[in-house]
Amino acid sequence: MDIIHAFSPDNIRFIFEGFYMTLKVALISIILSFVVGCIVGTIRYTKLPVISPILGVLVELLRNLPLLLIIFFARFALPDIGIKLGVVNSAIVALTLFEGAMIAEIVRSGLSSVDKGQIEAARSSGLSYMQTLWHIVLPQGLRRMVPPLVSQFISLLKDTSLAVVISLGELMHHAKIVIGQSYSYTIPILLLVAILYFAVNYVLSLATRRLETKLV
After folding, report:
1. Residue-number span of the structural domain to which 199 is assigned
2. pTM (2 d.p.)
3. Whole-number Å distance between alpha carbons of 72 and 168
4. From 70, 121, 186, 204, which residue has the greatest number of CB atoms within 10 Å?
5. DSSP secondary structure, 9-27, as one string
6. 87: domain CATH number?
7. How many CB atoms lie within 10 A of CB 169?
8. Would you place residue 149 in the very low, low, confident or very high pLDDT band (cuts 50, 70, 90)?
9. Neighbour count for residue 111 (Cβ, 10 Å)
10. 138-159 and 186-215 are packed helices; what angle lies between their axes, rounded to 10 degrees?
11. What is the number of domains present in the chain?
12. Which residues, in sequence order, are CB contacts of 73 under 8 Å at separation 6+?
C-alpha cells in the first residue's frame, strides 16, 4: 500500500475532477428526475383517462429494467433512431428516466396516502379539485415523501458510478485509472472514494432530518 504516491497532487486533482463530474451529473439528474417524477406522479394520481394508464405502463417498465440496460440504451441504441447524445448527456438521460420513474411512484403513493375524508371535506366546503389538490393533498403528501425522495436522490448519486461502462469521466472511472498505475494504490484510492461518497450522502441525510423536523 503506497499512500504517499497514491495521493500525489496529480492523482488527487484527477480524482476530484471525477468527483466534480459525479456531482454535476447527479445534480442535473436529480433536478430533472424530480420534475419528471412530480408531473408523472401527479398525473397518475389524478387518473386522467388514457394518459394516466399509458404513463403507468411506462413507469412500471422503467422501474423493472436494470439501470445499466437503460444507460446502454441511451448511449448506443438511441443513435440508431437519430438521437445522438454525448457520454454525459447519455448518462443524464438514463438516470433521469430511471429515477424519474421511481420518484413518480413515490409522489403517487405520497398523494394517495392523504386521508380521503379530508379531500371530501375540502370538496364539500366549495374547493375545486385543483384547489383541493394544491392546498390539502400536496402539503400533506410532501411531508410523507421527503424521506423516500432523499433516499432516492442518494441512490441516484451512487448510481452515477454505473456510467463507468460508457466511459463517463466520473469518480469511479477516474479512480480506476489511478489504480491502474499501480495496485499498491488500490486501498488508499478506494478509501478516498468511499469517504467522498459518504460525505455527500451523509450531508443529504442530515438535511433530510432537519427538513422533516421543520415539516412536522
Report:
1. 3-215
2. 0.85
3. 12
4. 70
5. HHHHHHHHHHHHHHHHHHH
6. 1.10.3720.10
7. 18
8. confident
9. 21
10. 180
11. 1
12. 94
The pLDDT of residue 212 is 65
Place of cell 415539516: 215
C-alpha cell belonging to residue 27:
445534480
Is pLDDT above 90 for 101?
Answer: yes
Which positions ≥6 away from 99 have C-beta within 8 Å?
A: 29, 30, 33, 37, 152, 155, 156, 159
Residue 32 · residue 103 · CB < 8 Å: no
- Report pLDDT for 174: 92
Grid coordinates given for 184: 499498491
- Count helices and strands (H / E) in the chain: 10, 0
What is d(CA 123, CA 108) in angstroms, rounded to the nearest whole number? 20
Q: Are 156 and 29 within 8 A, CB to CB?
A: yes
**Which tens digit of pLDDT belongs to each residue from 54-68?**
999 999 999 999 999
The H or E element containing residue 181 is helix 171-181
User: What is the identity of the amino acid at 201?
Assistant: N
Cα(209)–Cα(216) distance, rounded to whole angstroms? 11
- pLDDT digit string, tens, across residues 8-52: 889 899 999 999 999 999 999 999 999 999 899 888 888 888 899
* Contact yes or no for 51/43 (Cβ under 8 A): yes
Cell of 154: 442518494
Using CA atoms, how far apart are residues 170 and 167, in angstroms rounded to an integer? 8
Contacts of 88 by beta carbon, 8 Å cutoff, 6+ apart: 21, 25, 168
Q: By the 8 A CB rule, do 104 and 59 touch?
A: yes
